[in-house]
Amino acid sequence: MNSLKPQLSKISNEDRTPLVDVLLELLAWQQKQIDRLEQEILKLKGETTKPKIKPSKMDKDSAEEGDGDNRDASKKKKGPKRSKTEHIKIDATVDIQPDKIPKGSTFKGYREVVIQDIVFKTFNTCYRLAQYQVPDGEGVNNFV
Questions:
Q1: Could you say which of 25, 30, 45, 54 has the lowest number of CB atoms within 10 Å?
Q2: Is residue 60 part of a domain?
Q3: What mean pLDDT is reported for the chain?
Q4: What share of the chain in percent tops pLDDT 70?
Q5: DSSP-assigned beta bridge partners for residue 112
Q6: What are the two backbone dihedrals, phi and then psi, of residue 41, each rounded to the nearest 5 degrees?
Q7: Could you give the number of structural domains in the chain?
Q8: Which of 105, 102, 103, 85 is closest to 93 using CA atoms?
Q9: Domain boundaries, position 21
């Protein structure tokens, strides 16, 4: 099956006549037929053949998913929203205090913000942001 195929030399534009173009097309068609027949022979012998690769349907699927109606329908099927940080391991906790705390302010606790990061292994830090209340009722903290 693996016979050497003759290589055609480059044909210049001056030498290309309509007859030469027809013969080149005929050679290309013949080569496709030979390849198809060789694959059929391999198949009949039970040997491996070239795989038939189907065109991708990814573009067709993404166009259908992009429709606004489909997205709304899929949102309705989902269950209740759950906390994404509820079950993760916290590797470090950092308490952050405001830069300036007016006198007479009352500490009201922390607001937790979890930042997930990957450093060759997971390393999750819980930032505890101190919150104070000024005597006039205003809140004081570093982050809004």
A1: 54
A2: no
A3: 80
A4: 81
A5: 128
A6: -65, -45
A7: 2
A8: 85
A9: 17-51
